[in-house]
Amino acid sequence: MVILSKQETFRKSDPLAKKYFVKLHPIYKLMISDKLDKAIREVPDFPKPGISFKDITTILLDPELSTEIIDAFIEHLKGKKIDAIIGVESRGFLFGLMLANKMGLPFIPIRKVGKLPGETLRFKYDLEYGSSEVEVHKSDIKKDWNVVVHDDLLATGGTACAASELMQQLGAKVAAFAFVISLDFLNGNERLEKYSKNIISLKRY
Predict the structure, then answer these.
(1) Which residue positions in the chain have pLDDT lower than 70?
(2) Cβ-based neighbour number of residue 173 at 10 Å
(3) pTM of the predicted model, to two decimals?
(4) Which of 160, 164, 133, 158 is nearest to 146 (CA)?
(5) Three-state DSSP class for 193?
(6) Which residues are catalytic?
């Protein structure tokens, strides 16, 4: 037996067990982390020597785990007023669109400069070597919206910060960040806290 609350229990053989376990039981946070750890592929020396790349494409081979990721994000966001999901190019589009669809919310892409055809707002930010620039359609963001900024991975936080700057300039508020993976040793969380202290990461390294 798995105890959900004082009133609710179920047998693991129950076909509804997994559904309710995902949404209600606190140990699920540990389970999703362990599942992601097993599913994520580490590629040494990519994209350059000395870097151990966390490859999430292996997660996409597992539709059940992909659904559990979305359910976990939704559980973390429960009780918060959210108006839209912001996905950062390009891997932020994968689970970002799934999350928006399941929550019944608009999905808005943040893209590299030159990829969006309408009137855009741009933000340029520094990288370790050089700089990068992203943009969003101005008409996609409504003033006073509460948005979730999503990407697959949080490293130094540069791109997520750039997305947040765009949101603020357009009058929206970052209610939360949502990442599948966080590389905590790079301290990206510290950079994001100026926009929102609600930083969700399902697997931390």
Answers:
(1) 1-30, 128-129
(2) 16
(3) 0.84
(4) 164
(5) coil
(6) 91, 128
